[in-house]
Queue: 4 jobs
Job 1
Amino acid sequence: MSTTTTFVGMPASAPPAHPAFPQAAREAVRDARLRGTLRHATHTIRAKRAAAVAEVSDWAALREAGRQIKDHTLRHLDRYLVQVEQAVTAAGGTVHWAADAAEANRIVTDLVKATGESEVVKVKSMTTQEIGLNEALEAAGIRAYETDLAELIVQLAHDRPSHILVPAIHRNRGEIRDIFRSEMGEWGRPAPEGLTDEPAELAEAARLHLREKFLRARVGISGANFMVAETGTLVVVESEGNGRMCLTLPETLISVVGIEKVVPTWRDLEVFLQTLPRSSTAERMNPYTSLWTGTTNSATADGPREFHLVLLDNGRTDALADTVGRQALRCIRCSACLNVCPVYERAGGHAYGSVYPGPIGAILSPQLRGTASGIDASLPYASSLCGACYEVCPVAIDIPEVLVHLRERVVQGGEAVRQGNRVVLRPARGHAAERAAMRAARWALTRPGVLRAGQRLAARSRRFAPRTLPGPGRAWTDSRDLPPLPAEPFRDWWQRTRGGKDTAR
């Protein structure tokens, strides 16, 4: 594990040019259709999730168990990753290690080329989106077909995902119908004549379009929700069955998985297979839970005859070195935090400039990519710190705590340096005005007489207090009210109402 991590240098996977979050969000909130679509979708999912969780009497215990399993695994990640490699290799698979997105894309591209194929089918995967795998394959003359319904919509529309669970949440049924009508023919089987925006018709059009892809494909690409260290088993949970087709029909399967997806034992899955479906799709269990270990030697059996596992770092060991920020690596990608976030509901996923939108993206993307770019430096501020995300997280990630921690990193800049068992920030030069203000506050707060005089002066001049701040402070008060000054200092109130001596010194 790395001991020194530079957060203001080149990020692990540089994002494309994208405005900072405030600017992108300002444009998004002006789109009334988008806000209406997001509000309806997130409120619906939120209500269903609450009902599904309420059915479980020991939800708090499951949540705490998930947190402890993840924390234990992250503390011993080096050992469990070696165990995964040994188990996968023993089961007939091949393990590749990728330090960053470029290396992972090169490995996968070379593996596909070695098969002689120019097409692949894909299971919905945030990790392959993170590294831009589809674009890398296209540059090498290989076409990747997304098979998840929402991912298919995004791909046909030449769009970007805007939600972890429902990538096309920003599209309504009429838009999807128009996309299918105009784009399906360019990618394969065209949409049926007279296609309407009825959900059943749209789903049938997608099913017919994808069926020929499944039957023709010789190479499948997936991520994984979990990897079991003791057996080398990979797990994918889904609701449609498209993933099952990609995992069982192709002769070659390539899985790109973040190193944090490990769990130590089969028994640990019992916790997550209860909390993940209820938190994400509000189901008691996922309709399709696919598990595979290595390869199959039979031509008639389901499963790949050649299996490759690409273990991806791409900034994860840097996040692991941060004792506060590493909480983000517990994430099981349920998206519950997005559905309760008032900021996401109004701004949408595209404003975050990352494949990981919402509260989890606001703490994960800056750690994986660094805070050198405007978008990544602004993401820790894309929150009201209301705490709703922490309340619904099934692995108890304290997202508000990490947001505040990352804001400190952005303000201070410089390097995060390991000192013993903890990571401390080595401040960069600059920010002289802020440091001067903090020194002045320290001077006043450590002198009770000065503080007492200042409080009384503020109380007596309260009618002259401005409603907005001048200069650079105006941007802050444009969207916030200054707290009102009390009519009298607390010490005066205490003496008046209690009749006691001023002991607050």
Job 2
Amino acid sequence: MKRILVVKVTSLGDIVETLPVVSDLRRAFPSAKVDWAADAAFADIIRWNPGVDRVLSAPLRKFKKARSWKDLKDIAASIGELRAEKYDVIVDIHGVYKSAIIAFIARGRRRYGYLNQDLGERGAAFAYNARFGPRPLTDAWRGMRVSVADALGYRFDDTPDYNIRLPAVTRDLEIPHNTRIAMLFHATSADVKKWPKEHWAEVGRWLTARGYSIALPWGTEREQGEAQAIAALVPGATVLPKLSVVECAHWIQASELVVGTDTGLVHLAHALQRRTVMLFAATSREHFGIDEPGRSVSVGEEGAPPDVPQVLAAIESVTGAPLQFGERVIS
């Protein structure tokens, strides 16, 4: 095995949770080159993993929004770059039209994709001349690792290796030292995933009473307003300035605890080995959650968001910070 192409196009959380596949391939085929094809919006995150030799990216999302001539030319150029190498194996672990098209355009002897019933979009099946086995009965993240390992004939360590090396930032982020930072990722692109600001405020006050400094990140003006509304209810809480993804990653790395909704940056916190609590309200916790006993845990479920006591209990489970006598009992 000389050259392998991984195809996982979007989104942030999915990209982060695919990184252990690269480590698995590196262990199984130490001399192989491992390339990765993805949307340009997430290419930098893949480059944080030194196990990836070449990141092939195209501004697919950007072109879909703006339809600019420049983006179209960049997509055309990326096709030429994609076809510059011939792969022994192409593994499409996304399973939708856009990933299938990339797998089909790439030059390779074997193009693996999911079985029809496991594809995100059935029409993607046209691109493959080999298939993964039936989707294993496990979460989505381990399932990707199992599918690739079974197809290529190797075994992997149960503990995922994300192998992230953050690049330096170009400005002083003014991250406080000797401070127990708790980042609360309240923002999410889907309103159905949101948690009430009063709940966030109650969690923030609970953590503040235990010596944490609360940091509230945001990405849009609306999210900034929501962060300010939460901060107004949590004495001493800080609304962070607008951060790039890598800047936010440095804040995460400096934090002792991260609590947030089912979003990509919370998956990144888990990958960076932070103590992490992920809240679910609109997607499957069993399928998309994180779980490492004593460090990361997911609470809530599709259609049944967690209440405050459940979240406080989850925080206790990853920090070892039990409630004090006289506080609200968590059931």
Job 3
Amino acid sequence: MTSKTEGAWRVGVLFSESGTTHVTETEHLRGTELAIAEINAAGGIRGKPIEPVIHDPGARNDSYLKYARQLLAEDEVDVIFGCSMSASRKTVLPIVERYNGLLFYPSMYEGFEYCENLVYSGATVNQTCLPLADYLVNTHGGRISLVGSDYIFPRESNRIMRDLIEARGGEIVGEAYVPLGAGVEDLDPILRDILAQKPDAVFSTMIGTSAQAFYRLYDEAGIDRAAHPIASLTMAETEMAKIGRDRVEGHVLASTYFQTLETEVNRRFVAAFKARFGAEATTSIWSESAYLQVQLFARALDRLGVMDPRRLSQAPLGDEFEAPEGLVRVDPETRHLWLTPRIGVARADGLFDVVWEGNAPVRPDPYLATTRIEETALELWS
């Protein structure tokens, strides 16, 4: 069992610093660590520090399962900040439910899920895919290729994007998937198909090292990124730097956060992040969503004064505060966050110019129960 500090609020942290998604999950970990450090430096919660119990699952689902069980059953932890991919979340979920724990999950994802043992801090598809489909069709054209890693998030996101593009009079001209961790030999045939299809844009739900390799191949093929970009929900600032800033200018990201947001809260967040992790470090939706969910937990725990996962599961509902990305609010009905959708285009320095944003936080609709596929972002949020 991990050693225990008397009088501390112990929480589990389950993000991968190794494996195919280590870049983005390390960002989750950094955002979590920064938030905990800031809370502890300010006196903790009711005078007690947060003590993280950290495990590295190595982007392996069996390791997420093992460490989640260890945290809840052996390490005397009730609350976990963790998981990045939908596959890891779904692997951990039965264990969290069995031990009546509480998982804070920070990633944008495909939706169609509700659990009393989870707080979902990432964007839902109506906050990302819907404005992205509008932007691609209106700015670049309606002939879109879909590529993705072969698991639930890419397949479900691509299914929704197909419906959105076709509802706008566009056409999906190709769809292909590769295994997680796929290399150049798997990606070359997909790139050849894209060159033959000549789409107006590519919607990529590839994840991790495969996505990075695909972006490099796209650049080497000489495709005009300004005219025919890759659009994504995941390829944010830190991975852009990993790919090579000279290879990414013009690509598109649908996100609720960008480092370049000009708010006082974000300026403080970026400055603190760089002070802790180095001047060259970049914030991203991966670090920011992890950071804000720790703040959300701390606010709830401060109100309750007791680490009771059942009560903590309910305490954040309806809460709202200013995060680095702007005002966020926990929707009591869905357990997801009201967030402001944005579209960014990558610059030569690997950061993003925000070319479109909603004028207010948008209600999460993880089941697409109230959002009509044919509606546009302008109709919904004007």
Job 4
Amino acid sequence: MVDIENAYKQCEKVIKHHSKTFYKAFSLLPEKKKKAVWAVYAFCRIVDDIVDEDSSPHKELALFEEDFHLFLNGTIPQGEYHFMWLALHDVSIHYNLQKDAFLDMITGQRMDLVKTRYNTTDEVLTYSYHVASSVGLMLLPILAPQKIEALREGAISLGLGMQLTNILRDIGDDLGRNRIYLPKELMDYYQYSEEDLRSGLVNSSFVKMWEHLANEAELYYQKALETMNEYPLSSRTPVKASALLYGEILTKIRKKQYKVFNEKQYVSNEEKTIILSKISG
């Protein structure tokens, strides 16, 4: 039987393995909040992996959603993900978790099972809200319980910026899963075809298209940073760090001449440390 401390440790392992950027940023939180963030992240990572890695994702996602509804009704589901449900239950005792944000995440992951192309930027932003902005909304009751409404738009903007960054970084990986998140209207506008994309062509059209979305992402980061002072001091630095560290991925891709087809660009530990040292509460 998993005890609560081991449940949190397993959640921490999930985030430490899958997102070193998030782990670095949110390790700055006080212990209680930090562990709560680990549990929420584990929920998000597990549902994402079901869609991307499971051999029968439709069935497993449906079962996962059933377990979530059991969880909402006070039952801690057993099985492979028991540790996450146990930790999340403990979080729910201390924080007023927003169930709609969790359901939005599940909805967003389901989109990946039925949709592999996006025609418009608005469609991409709707998807991004569900798979990324929902995370910010999940975390607000933990990070800023007295300021949820004041920070809602900023949290949504931060999620949009991060997901657009993911899309721009993971173009090659996504192609390997037959997914293209770059909106067709943008590809058409810059005269860059799906054939060009599949051949890994980095030309002036690709760079202009990439920069178009990157500039949008940076505007969302900027909007998120405008409300950063509304966070309690203990949460402000980690959230600001996550925005700046994630935004730096775009800078790294530019420095690497837009190599996003066969390489995955990361911000190094040394670069992260330099950025964190410059952040003041």
